[in-house]
Write a structure and sequence with these properties.
Blueprint (H helix, E strand, L loop, with lengths): L1 E6 L7 H4 L2 E19 L2 E15 L13 E6 L2 E5 L7 E17 L2 E18 L6 E3 L3 H5 L5 E7 L9 E21 L2 E12 L3 E2 L5 E4 L11 E4 L11 E9 L3 E2 L2 E2 L4 E11 L4 H4 L10 E5 L28 E2 L6 E3 L8 E4 L7 E14 L2 E20 L13 E22 L4 E14 L20 E2 L6 E10 L9 H6 L2 E10 L3 E2 L7 E3 L2 E3 L6 E2 L9 H5 L14 E3 L5 E3 L3 E4 L19 E2 L3 E13 L11 E9 L20 E6 L18 E6 L14 E9 L1
Parallel strand pairs: 4-8, 22-25
Antiparallel strand pairs: 1-2, 2-3, 3-6, 4-5, 6-7, 7-10, 8-9, 9-19, 10-11, 10-12, 11-15, 13-14, 15-18, 16-17, 18-23, 20-21, 23-24, 24-25, 25-26, 26-27, 26-28, 28-29, 29-38, 30-37, 31-32, 33-36, 34-35, 35-36, 38-39, 39-42, 40-41
Length: 712
């Protein structure tokens, strides 16, 4: 399936000079299925498929002058820029999958055995700095090929040539399972099974993937080294997932006859999944592949690509970009432009995240087309990943800047009660309503962005998940309008087939964390922002959009009530609702222990009403088209009544940031309540954020979509 986008590159690039920029991506897939009946009770199903998605913006834009370096030339009141400033994207992903399932019926058992093998290839190039960028003083210096400096460019530190940094990642997975569905009794079915999953560690086809190997104990960083060409982490081979379940329809229970109108279902299972590659591959920039650096006038090597105007490579080498590396640790230790690298990677014993899921549901048919169900769903997540800057925890290696380590030590908990009721009327009308009462808790809600404000003690981070919604209601109706509804001829095609479906949605607000715009920092890292050290109570509990449109929201008067500060260190200020502490900076200093739980407060709730309206033109049976051919025309209206719904509070946004500490000097300019040391000439006060507690944005208004679909 091809997808092509063409657009002007924007910025300094003029489409009249370089033509439009083309992004041509393709998604190709092929599958082979083979089902074989071995005997009347045994069937084997085999499937093989290949999926490929790729794009190469270098190849799809042969008109782009990749071989011309980027230049900036100042002129009066403006700047002339030349070269192509949009870095091209290059990505190829291919996945090969083979599955085989053997099914066997034996008496009252349905046995299934299966295997699945998948191999994934990800080839990507990071090209943002591969073309040099030069600055000139004026047109005269440009005419004389005399740049004043070179902007940040990515170089191979072993050869000095400009480079993109490419990775050819290879991963595989293997799954094996066995399952038994046993019809133990006429009204009782039991299911049992076991699945085993194995996910290979990341590898690079050409051995260019590098990872940090930590030292032992307190020497985790001082004894660290870079390992190149091996597995990214040690394999985890302990991924056994049992699965059990049952479905029971009791004829009678405790003297009550159900007459096959009641079903009780339940189950338990363990499911595994690999740590996301998108997280691990942040380590693509580890040494020794590249450095990103700029050069002054006397070290600039200026030139075009030696392979032509439209060639992406071939720029001249710069000897000043060459570094030397310690053969024992693999870390850069010398070179004129040596910059301590930021290193990322997983711990070596990276575990496979898994989830234990369990459920119980009772479903009852009350007759007259009324059905109700009540269920419980729960899950326990274990060994989910988070990112930590180890430079905050261990003595620093003088040859490294920050060290971001991915480790699997996050747990999560989810529990929910779900209720559902549905009713079918006799004239084409169906009603259904769902209610969910749930709670999701964790210490980190995202694989990519964890937002931990006190990672030194993960127990202080445990609280409602960022996506937790306590109450959720969805109710909808589907009505086939009674216009020649039961006919199957041309009259029905012309006048019937009208459908109307209103949908009502309600969700209570997402949780959020109040933070202080101050940081604790040491030589190689910081924790920013921090949480207040205390909450005095008194906040409101109205979560309507109207509340959050007013100044302060549920924290009325926060920004207008002067804070009272006490001289430190550290300086502590008492606001109307919170106690905030200024975090001092310095090596080895910890921020104050939070006194406010993570995600303690709730943001604006959501209420919406949607409507779907359309008609299906059902064609009478026609040769070639078949009996169910038809044309459907439909309009979808979201937020039909254009109700204003405030946006959820983002982490460390204007809505959730309390404010910052500021200094005042001379003391005569300090506001009331400022902390002024005895005999001091300056003071410290807390400046509240005027938008704290208030929504600063809104969700989408009314949106109407129309579409047409033909099926046969």
């Amino acid at each position: 399936m091809p997808l092509s986008n063409s657009f002007l590159p924007g910025g300094w690039v003029d489409g009249r000079q370089y033509d439009i920029f083309k992004h041509d991506s393709k998604n190709e897939t092929a599958a082979l299925l083979w089902t074989r009946t071995l005997n009347p009770t045994t069937v084997n199903e085999a499937r093989m498929n290949v999926t490929r998605w790729y794009f190469d913006e270098i190849k799809s834009n042969p008109q782009a002058p990749w071989g011309v370096p980027k230049v900036h030339i100042p002129i009066p009141n403006n700047t002339i820029a030349a070269g192509f400033f949009n870095p091209p994207g290059v990505f190829y992903q291919t996945t090969y999958t083979f599955r085989d399932t053997l099914s066997k019926v034996h008496n009252s058992h349905i046995l299934k055995f299966g295997a699945e093998f998948a191999k994934e290839q990800n080839n990507s190039a990071n090209t943002w700095g591969a073309v040099p960028s030069y600055d000139f003083n004026n047109l005269w210096s440009f005419a004389n090929d005399a740049p004043t400096d070179e902007g940040t460019t990515t170089y191979n530190p072993k050869t000095g040539f400009p480079t993109d940094f490419r990775k050819y990642i290879r991963v595989s997975s293997l799954g094996l399972f066995a399952q038994d569905n046993w019809k133990a009794r006429r009204n009782l079915t039991l299911t049992g099974g076991l699945r085993y999953d194995y996910f290979t560690p990341l590898q690079d086809k050409f051995g260019r993937l590098s990872n940090i190997i930590l030292g032992s104990g307190n020497n985790a960083l001082t004894g660290a080294m870079i390992e190149i060409g091996k597995n990214f982490s040690k394999p985890d081979r302990n991924n056994f997932g049992p699965q059990i379940g049952f479905a029971w329809s009791p004829g009678s229970f405790i003297g009550h006859e159900f007459n096959n109108k009641f079903v009780l279902r339940g189950g338990f299972g363990v499911a595994y999944n690999r740590v996301p590659e998108s997280l691990l591959l942040n380590a693509a920039g580890n040494p020794p592949d590249f450095i990103a650096t700029a050069f002054p006038t006397n070290e600039v090597v200026y030139g075009f690509s030696t392979c032509g105007t439209y060639c992406f490579t071939g720029f001249p080498a710069n000897p000043a970009a060459i570094l030397t590396f310690d053969p024992a640790t693999g870390l850069p230790i010398g070179g004129e432009h040596l910059a301590k690298p930021d290193i990322k990677g997983p711990i070596q014993k990276l575990a496979t995240p898994y989830t234990m899921h369990f459920s119980m549901e009772g479903q009852y048919d009350f007759g007259n087309n009324w059905m109700m169900s009540l269920s419980y769903q729960g899950s326990q997540g274990r060994k989910y990943p988070r990112s930590l800057n180890y430079a905050l925890f261990y003595p620093q290696n003088p040859n490294i800047n920050t060290v971001t380590i991915y480790q699997t030590d996050v747990n999560s908990h989810y529990n929910a009660m779900l209720a559902r009721v549905s009713h079918r009327f006799s004239k084409g009308l169906e009603l259904e309503a769902h209610y969910r009462l749930s709670k999701s808790s964790d210490a980190c809600s995202s694989d990519q962005v964890c937002n931990q404000t006190f990672p030194f003690d993960q127990s202080t981070e445990y609280g409602p998940s960022d996506f937790d919604v306590t109450h959720s209601i969805t109710a909808y109706a589907v009505w086939e309008l009674p216009v020649v509804r039961n006919r199957h001829d041309w009259l029905h095609t012309a006048a019937g087939g009208w459908m109307l479906s209103p949908i009502f949605n309600f969700n209570s607000g997402f949780p959020w964390t109040p933070v202080v715009g101050t940081c604790i920092s040491n030589v190689f890292g910081n924790v920013c922002p921090t949480r207040p050290t205390g909450y005095l109570g008194g906040a409101g509990t109205n979560f309507s959009t109207g509340t959050f449109q007013t100044k302060g929201g549920n924290f009325s008067g926060f920004s207008t009530t002067p804070a009272t500060c006490v001289v430190g260190p550290p300086v502590s200020c008492q606001t109307k609702y919170f106690t905030v502490v200024e975090s001092p900076s310095g090596s080895g200093i910890l921020p104050p222990v939070p006194g406010v739980d993570r995600n303690l407060f709730r943001g604006p709730r959501y209420t919406g009403f949607d409507l779907s309206f359309g008609k299906r033109f059902t064609f009478p049976a026609v040769r070639l088209l078949g009996e169910k051919a038809g044309l459907e025309v439909r309009a979808e209206a979201y937020n039909l009544f254009n109700k204003a719904n405030a946006s959820p509070f983002a982490f460390n946004s204007g809505s959730s940031n309390l404010g910052t500490f500021q200094t005042c000097s001379p003391v005569s300019t300090c506001p009331a309540g400022a902390a002024i040391p005895s005999g001091g000439t300056s003071g410290t006060f807390f400046a509240p954020n005027s938008t704290f507690g208030q929504a600063t944005g809104a969700l989408s208004g009314r949106v109407v979509e129309m579409y047409m679909k033909f099926s046969f």
